Amino acid sequence: MSSKLVASLAGIFGLALYSSMAIGSKYNLPEPQNFIAQDVYDQHIVLMWICLVIFIGVFGVMFYSVLKHRKSQGYKAANFHHSTSVEIVWTVIPVIILVLMAWPATKTVIAMKDTSEPDMTIKVTGYQWMWGYDYLQGDGEGISFYSKLSTPVAQIENKEPKGENYLLEVDNNLVVPVGKKVRLIITANDVIHAWWVPALAVKQDAIPGFIRDSWFEVDNPGIYRGQCAELCGKDHGYMPIVVEALEAEQYAEWVAEQQEKLAAEETSEKQKLGLVDGSIVTNEKS
């Protein structure tokens, strides 16, 4: 077996190993949970392969030329100004590659922006440093709560071992039903934030004074984690997002539980204010 064939087989094996490690790595994109996220993931993998092929081609030719045509081998530098044919080729080929890359990417971006006909609408508000959620339309309408980091301070200060979801856990998850199109109306109360959950292919800036919108749909029940993706101050790294997707029956139970809590809180607040059956109770001195 020739040395060139051995080198070629070794290179192919190395690329296959690299590819399998990259796809299965924890540093890769998380497993997609809807068709938009699947499109993003597939295009990411394809574009990485295209970049790898271009990298090998360009640097392979460069190093081959440098080593094969070095002065110590008796080669003399060619003396020419330019080649119109070569310039046309290395302009046309990149344009074709970019068009082929841009076509599916553009279709995916357009689909990402299509927030029409949602099954439910949730307002997302970014604060320093937590998220506020208001269920505006659909199942769960009227539910409202804040979602803050729940990682113990002792873990952050290295006084306890760090948990499995260190800095990616909250006290109140954003709960949604499986298979429903959820529209997000996103804004901020103070500075610019960004609501980002990679498994759902959602990343949208939250800007004070402006309303941005996005959407997602979850195919499978589970918990999906994200973070604020815009530098928003000293506790930017302590602003996680947790989306919990439930089956329809479980989601209905969660909605009923939240509505009971809300009713109990309203009753308690009325009692504190001295309101009973909508009337103000006054104590008159005899």
Explain what you see.
With 286 residues, the protein is of the alpha+beta class. The protein has two domains: 8-112, Orthogonal Bundle (Helix Hairpins), CATH 1.10.287; 120-272, Cupredoxins -  blue copper proteins (Immunoglobulin-like, Sandwich), CATH 2.60.40. The protein has five helices and twelve strands. It has helices spanning 3-24, 35-68, 84-112, 153-156, 248-273; strands spanning 120-127, 130-137, 144-147, 174-177, 182-188, 193-197, 202-206, 212-216, 222-228, 240-246, 275-276, 279-280. A five-stranded mixed sheet has the order 3-2-1-5-8, with no helix packed on it. Strand 1 (120-127) and strand 2 (130-137) form a beta hairpin. Helix 2 (35-68) packs antiparallel against helix 3 (84-112). It starts with a helix and ends in a 6-residue tail after the last strand.
Summarize the structure.
The protein is α+β, with helices and mostly antiparallel strands. The chain has 5 helices and 12 strands. The chain has 2 domains: 8-112, Helix Hairpins, CATH 1.10.287; 120-272, Immunoglobulin-like.
